[in-house]
Amino acid sequence: MKVLEERFKAYDRSKRPTLKAGMGPIAHEKGTTFRVWAPNAQEVYVIGGFNEWHEDTNPLTLEGDGYWATDVAGAKPGQEYKYLIINGEQRLYRLDPYSRQVTSTVGNSVIHDPSFDWGDTEGFHSPPWNELVIYEMHIGTFNPAGDGVGTFQRAAKKLPYLHELGVNAVQIMPPMEFPGGRSWGYNLALPFAVETDYGGMVGFKEFVKAAHGHGIAVILDVVYNHLGPSDLDLWRFDGWSEGDGGGIYFYNDSRGETPWGHTRPDYGRPEVRQMLRDNALMWLNEYKVDGLRWDATAYIRNVQGNDNSPANDLPDGWNLMQWINEEVRELAPNQLPIAEDLKGNEWIVKDTGAGGAGFGSQWDPNFVHPVRTAIITNDDAFRDMESVKNALTFKYNGDAFKRVVYTESHDEVANGKARVPEEIWPGDSHNWFAKKRSTMGAVLVFTAPGIPMIFQGQEFLEDKWFSDTEALDWDYAEKMEGIIYLYRDLMRLRRNMDGISKGLTGQQIDVYHVNQNDKVIAFHRWSDGGPGDSVVVVMNMTNKTLTDYTIGFPAAGQWSLRFDSHAAVYSPDYEGQVSGDVVAEAGEYDGQAAHGKLAMGPYSGLIFSQNPG
Fold it and tell me: How far is CA 410 from CA 135, 377, 419, 448, in A?
């Protein structure tokens, strides 16, 4: 015993390694701490450039609960490494699940340098939810050079264009590390690493910094309903599994089955829950993103992605969403958590205190499907104005901004569905009818209650269905310059940038005129009401010019025409302009206090407001 005491006294405690908190590689002044979860391992080693890849030089010590850690003096950012996990006869060489940086999905993890100079964008604040205009973007196809894969750097070159257009939020399809260089991004192999071919960790931070410098928020698409399924080092990570299951990170029974493989994370296992929570907070803390859009949340809360199927419900998935949303709200109250649930379930956007999932907003199927049907339908006689009214007035929990409204998204323009102009007129998506009816949809998106979103290239009538191998055709931006101006003018009004359309940022809507015979709909949008606030939108959804058409207005006086989608400036073949300001006379009509006559071009939308006092 005395010998042991003497040896302890002689040991220089200042030279003992200090394990830093956290998971994965944690670089510090004297080296790097490595920590990994492998509860079924008998031994774990870290091997890499810092020890010349010797397999037994740096063993990890079991800390408890399956966590292993060590500190390697001199290990520094930029050096590659892997874990060697020994489980019986199995010798498993694994990438670090918490890797921020890798050489590839089949390569090595890299010790990352967490430092980054955010400069003047450090204090950026996202616009209020009711003023957001979202642009969904796929980095790989948005603005690549030649036939190559797009990068964050190349995408950043278009940020001035998006700012000028009126976009103040970009939603990035998943940029997490996936196999190969081309993908939609939903087959991520390493949830903490950023796709190397896009520019990796630093490239993404530079993109966020540049976006914030242009006043544009960044919303990130995250995938927690499944992982992989290919190049998935998390699969049977430490050598253990049950049956055909994937081991410690996944359900090993029928709950693991998803449309994308048997790779649903085990939401009931504390360490897996912690990993997903850490991932969500990492994007907010380390990358300063302004919101998370969760992919296919229906498959987090139910094995088959269904409502009203209690036998297949995943209660652990539901309370995982609640937990993470509560954590995120505490960290960043202005951050916008969006769900892509697409079941029209109001509980997705109810507060967690009321038992809801706690999302701030969700993609709304009650808007996109009826509106797409209304504008794609070729025969005017079959255009259902009541369904358009219902799409405009639908709310979750009485809050207009609990939904994201759109006519195009990556899902709506792929998987057998095309861009709206192509759906309207296959093979000739830039003809008069395709332009006119697709932009009717744009008018509805930017004047309906909700958070408006468009998909990349929609503003210049991109006609190709979405594919990760087909780049946007930026030549269309020149050919369709007038249509870009149309989208720009709509975004300007939606954001009330001139102080004449505040109502479009408000909660209220009254669809007071629905003419099923002439296919006309009119509605009043307002926040507080009155000049500069109240907005009247009128849609003519037929191929005929209407004149001397009477509708109600909320107040008497002059209503200035702020926007006419049939204006000649938007396209040289928009002929026969008939619309103008309207002087409304006192006298009840359509349930409104005043009424006036107007004229409308075919397939057009008009936006009116009164000048502020």
Answer: 11, 21, 10, 21
Predicted structure pTM score = 0.96
Exposure of 35 by Cβ count < 10 A (0-12 exposed, 13-18 middle, 19+ buried)?
buried
Contacts of 464 (CB under 8 A, 6+ apart): 419, 422, 470, 473
Q: b/e per residue, 498-527, with b = 16+ CB within 10 A?
A: eebbbbbbbeebbbbbebeeebbbbbbbbb
Any idea how long the chain is? 613
Distance between CA 443 and CA 84 in Å, rounded?
57
Cα separation, 372 vs 437, whole angstroms: 10
What six digits make up the tokens of 250?
């996944």
Closest-CA residue to 273 (of 297, 246, 304, 249): 249
DSSP 460: G
Burial of 52 (0-12, 13-18, 19+ CB in 10 A): exposed
pLDDT of residue 297: 98
Q: Which of 247, 253, 250, 227 is nearest to 312 (CA)?
A: 253
Torsion sign across C-alpha atoms 311, 316, 320, 322: positive
In contact, 124 and 355? CB cutoff 8 Å: no
- In sequence order, what are the residues at sequence separation of 6 or more whose Cβ sits closer than 8 angstroms to the Cβ of residue 381? none
Q: How confident is the model at residue 613 (pLDDT cuts 50, 70, 90)?
A: confident
- Measured N-to-C along each axis, helices 481-494 and 432-447 cross at an angle, to the nearest 10 degrees, of 10
Q: Which residues of 185-205 are buried (b: 16+ CB within 10 A; e: fewer)?
A: bbbbbbbbbbbbbbbbbebbb
Look-up of token digits 């979405």: 466
- Bridge partners of residue 552, in order along the sequence: 595
Q: How confident is the model at residue 18 (pLDDT cuts 50, 70, 90)?
A: confident
Give residue-wise pLDDT tens across range 519-557: 999 999 999 999 999 999 999 999 999 999 999 999 999
Side-chain-side CA neighbours of residue 204 (13 Å): 30
SS (H, E, C) 312-354: HECHHHHHHHHHHHHHHHHHCCCCEEEECCCCCCHHHHCCHHH
Maximum distance among all Cα pairs of the chain, rounded to whole angstroms? 106
For the record, the structure tokens of 147 come out as 């036939």
Nearest to 513 by CA among 542, 538, 495: 538
Q: By 3-state DSSP, what share of the chain in percent is helix, strand and coil, each rounded to 5?
A: 30, 25, 45
- Residue 62 — φ and ψ, nearest 5°? -70, 120
Q: Say how far apart CA 190 and CA 233 lie, in whole Å.
A: 8
Tokens of residue 429, six digits: 């998506």
Whole-angstrom distance, CA of residue 282 vs CA of residue 315: 25
Contact between 440 and 604 (Cβ < 8 Å): yes
